[in-house]
Design brief:
The protein is an alpha+beta fold and 144 residues long. The chain has helices spanning 36-56, 67-75, 95-103, 115-123, 128-140; strands spanning 6-16, 19-24, 29-33, 87-94. The two termini are 26 Å apart.
């Protein structure tokens, strides 16, 4: 079994006017959210994306630092914005699960078919997305 991919990184969340600014020092990530819950969601997403970049580049994920180290890292940028006046919490990400989620997300594709075929398919109640997925799966010989 491979190295554990579940990580919990110290994350600072500080309100600035009507938004919540987020800083994850171990990964040098800055993001924001509209609420605290949204800020945590944005932090988790940013960590997942950056972790995938690390892996894709063949780099090891940084080890989460201790609270005291995270505070020291945040202090370096206190002249720009003092994150220590906000909340220091842990945000966890399972990198393997995050990668699966990203790979399985729906993407919108535009395709062109003859008008008459579209009319008949709509009258028959055909789900265009399902038909395209099934056809691509069969053509590529992969399971959905």
């Amino acid at each position: 079994m491979g190295k554990e991919k579940l990580r919990a990184y110290p994350t600072f969340i500080a309100q600035n006017d009507s938004i919540y600014l987020v800083y994850i020092p171990d990964m040098e990530i800055y993001t924001e959210g509209k609420t605290i819950a949204n800020a945590i969601e944005m932090a988790r997403d940013a960590i997942g994306l950056k972790a995938m970049d690390y892996e894709d580049d063949g780099k090891e994920l940084p080890e989460p630092s201790s609270y005291s180290t995270a505070i020291d890292l945040a202090a370096r940028d206190a002249d720009v914005f003092d994150y220590s006046k906000g909340i220091l919490t842990l945000v966890d990400v399972d990198v393997d699960e995050y990668r699966k989620k990203i790979r399985n997300r729906a993407v919108k594709k535009n395709c062109t078919i003859p008008y008459w075929l579209c009319e008949q398919a709509e009258q028959a109640g055909i789900n265009f997305s399902k038909v395209l997925q099934e056809a691509l799966s069969e053509k590529l010989n992969v399971k959905l």
